[in-house]
């Protein structure tokens, strides 16, 4: 395809429509100044295994020397007949920054009809959709607008929508939009776009907006607020109205490369996708109750997911386009995968058609003659099948032995861990003598070594009531933050304390250690003017401040030698929430490991079982543990403050002023940044300035009359 040609493909009633916008027609050797829109109807020939041309059509543009661009093509319902017809939207760049847009409908006679045209003083760059009517919806700056062939005028969407994940028609409701609605903290305009984490903090939630009534008709039973910052694409499967309340069944793609099924606002199934950055999802019905979700990725990959069990059924790479239709006329749907071919610009030269069952066609040539294969099929079957059966039997036998071995190992580890936990909690170990027989020494050790181990374990574990005052947990964006408040008698740093989360496995098969990021946070309760909060290197001789951003080794918040009663100490563990969403309910044991140095080359470990964390999808859907900012009230729970300190990105600035003007820093924080001092911890400033700064935490430590540290 030459540089002055544009091409788009669309499937419609089993055909592949190839739209081509070029200067002049195909027969001309030299292009003319008048642009022409061509369409070719291509059908798949099962005999020759290629796409052949069925018919053609063209539309001559009136504008000469125009800069035309194909925006999109699809098929929608025409309000005059109710029939779905293909359409194409074209942009014409005029002079003086004026852009003309027109929508052409293609009829069965290959005749184009100009259905809608309008001019704008700006260019539509993204988020353009065509809905039934036809109706064109797009976004400009922060406003969504639409125009239809019935109204012929541009109308603004009044709902405060920050993004639209789905748009379409719902029975008895008409044309609706499903997207995120922002609930700002102030009426003042915010000039900056909110960050991803702000969505979870600002109570953004999904809502359904009606274009006809210009109002939000539902904001419940859609998607829980915890997912608002990660969902990128939505496909609605079914809707119904119960007691005047809209109930929706849908699937969603997330930034965590997941496909999640939601029913009435509750997550039901999760599938981890094989590729990154998913961008679109379609439903394919291959017949016999076999439904697949076909997911496309921006990395030119695609995959198919079973709707029944939410498992990946197939995946493909180097895919340029994915189309779903009945291309072979079987009465069921197939997926057409068009692959990239650097040697040929024609999209339909390298392809694959499959229903993921018994229909498979490919443009790749076969190495053998199919007739010869069919004639020798009976003879080859008797030669090949018996060795395959024998090999399968050997393989199954090996798998059974391996499975029994793994089950035995899991049983030993599970019983050992339960005995360990019972020992820590002071409970009687009810392990029967029959079960204890499998817990034999693995390295030829003597039997009395078990008693020696029990004595050492008793010394290593300490009572949680003596060291732990409280355990809590919060959900921030896509992170689960678990915190443990220790007693004032326990003084820790990040080098000698580790907080671990041990997740219970299903059917009591053992425990799984979750990957966590630890932080030790110490805040002083002293009144002003003693700000002690500052990040410093861990160690006895820490003398300089680390001014680098977050790295793999976590920072620690420490106090400058306050008395034990004047300092609150929290140990936190942060883990990703996405892998846990696959479970309807999950439980974790919180284990604190403390390392003490007995001598120069000897370390002694102490373990404390702090408690258990129990979370369910119902709790998360209801936003029970979701951390949000109050609009006018200060932070009510100090656990929220510690969770923010643990999860927030921290930046540290060393500020110098030769003119001894650093005393105005507190005035700048209180007056210009509209900060509020946390009553319980006067060293922490909570920013209440409207806009993207809202919720920022500041601490200021003046080290000398002309130097200080701002965090």
UniProtKB/TrEMBL annotation:
Source taxon at top rank: Eukaryota
GO CC annotation: Fanconi anaemia nuclear complex
Native source organism of the sequence: Sapajus apella (Brown-capped capuchin)
The protein, known as: Fanconi anemia group B protein isoform X2
InterPro entries on file: FANCB
Gene Ontology biological process terms from the UniProt entry: interstrand cross-link repair; negative regulation of double-strand break repair via homologous recombination; positive regulation of double-strand break repair via homologous recombination; replication-born double-strand break repair via sister chromatid exchange
């Amino acid at each position: 395809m030459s540089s002055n040609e544009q091409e788009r493909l669309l499937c419609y009633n089993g055909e592949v429509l190839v739209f081509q916008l070029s200067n002049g027609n195909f027969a001309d050797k030299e292009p003319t100044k008048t642009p022409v829109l061509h369409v070719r109807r291509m059908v798949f020939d099962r005999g020759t295994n290629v796409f052949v041309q069925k018919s053609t059509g063209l539309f001559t543009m009136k504008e000469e020397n125009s800069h035309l661009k194909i925006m999109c093509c699809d098929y929608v319902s025409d309000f005059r007949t109710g029939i779905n017809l293909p359409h194409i939207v074209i942009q014409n760049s005029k002079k003086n920054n004026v852009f003309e847009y027109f929508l052409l409908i293609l009829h069965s006679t290959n005749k184009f009809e100009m259905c809608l045209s309008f001019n704008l003083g700006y260019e539509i760059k993204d988020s353009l959709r065509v809905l039934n009517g036809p109706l064109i919806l797009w976004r400009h700056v922060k406003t969504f607008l639409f125009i239809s062939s019935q109204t012929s005028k541009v109308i603004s969407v009044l709902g405060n929508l920050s993004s639209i994940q789905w748009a379409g028609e719902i029975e008895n409701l008409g044309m609706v939009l499903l997207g995120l609605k922002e609930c700002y903290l102030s009426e003042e305009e915010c000039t900056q776009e909110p960050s991803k984490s702000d969505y979870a903090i600002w109570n953004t939630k999904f809502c359904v907006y009606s274009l006809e009534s210009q109002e939000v008709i539902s904001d419940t039973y859609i998607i829980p607020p915890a997912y608002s910052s990660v969902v990128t694409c939505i496909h609605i499967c079914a809707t119904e109205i119960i007691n005047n309340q809209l109930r929706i069944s849908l699937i969603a793609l997330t930034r965590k490369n997941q496909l999640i099924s939601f029913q009435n606002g509750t997550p039901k199934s999760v599938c981890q996708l094989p590729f990154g950055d998913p961008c679109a999802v379609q439903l394919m019905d291959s017949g016999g109750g076999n439904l697949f979700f076909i997911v496309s990725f921006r990395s030119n990959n695609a995959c198919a997911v079973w709707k029944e069990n939410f498992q990946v059924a197939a995946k493909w790479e180097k895919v340029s386009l994915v189309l779903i239709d009945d291309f072979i006329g079987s009465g069921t749907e197939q997926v057409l995968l068009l692959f990239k071919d650097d040697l040929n610009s024609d999209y339909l030269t390298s392809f694959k058609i499959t229903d993921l069952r018994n229909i498979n066609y490919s443009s790749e040539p076969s190495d053998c003659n199919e007739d010869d294969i069919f004639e020798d099929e009976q003879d080859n079957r008797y030669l090949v099948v018996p060795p395959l059966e024998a090999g399968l039997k050997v393989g199954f036998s090996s798998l059974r032995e391996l499975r029994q071995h793994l089950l035995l190992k899991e049983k030993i580890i599970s019983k050992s861990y339960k005995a360990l936990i019972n020992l820590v909690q002071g409970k009687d170990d009810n392990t029967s003598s029959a079960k204890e027989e499998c817990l034999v020494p693995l390295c030829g050790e003597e039997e009395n070594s078990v008693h020696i181990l029990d004595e050492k374990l008793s010394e290593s574990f300490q009572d949680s009531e003596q060291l732990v005052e409280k355990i809590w947990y919060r959900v921030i964006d896509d992170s689960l933050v678990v915190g443990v408040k220790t007693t004032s008698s326990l003084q820790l740093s990040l080098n000698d304390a580790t907080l671990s989360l041990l997740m219970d496995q299903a059917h009591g098969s053992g425990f799984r250690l979750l990957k966590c990021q630890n932080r030790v946070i110490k805040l002083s309760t002293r009144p002003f003017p003693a700000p002690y909060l500052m990040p410093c290197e861990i160690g006895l001789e820490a003398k300089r401040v680390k001014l680098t951003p977050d790295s793999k080794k976590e920072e620690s918040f420490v106090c400058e030698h306050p008395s034990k009663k004047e300092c609150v100490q929290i140990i936190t563990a942060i883990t990703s929430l996405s892998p846990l969403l696959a479970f309807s309910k999950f439980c974790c044991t919180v284990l604190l490991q403390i390392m003490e140095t007995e001598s120069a080359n000897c370390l002694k470990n102490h373990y404390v079982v702090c408690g258990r964390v129990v979370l369910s999808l119902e709790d998360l859907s209801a936003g029970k543990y979701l951390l949000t900012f109050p609009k006018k009230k200060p932070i009510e729970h100090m656990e929220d403050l510690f969770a923010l300190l643990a999860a927030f990105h921290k930046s540290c600035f060393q500020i110098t002023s030769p003119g001894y003007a650093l005393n105005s820093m507190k005035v700048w924080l209180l007056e210009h940044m509209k900060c509020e001092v946390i009553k319980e911890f006067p060293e922490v400033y909570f920013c209440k300035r409207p806009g993207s700064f809202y919720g920022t935490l500041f601490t200021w430590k003046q080290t000398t009359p002309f130097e200080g540290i701002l965090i």
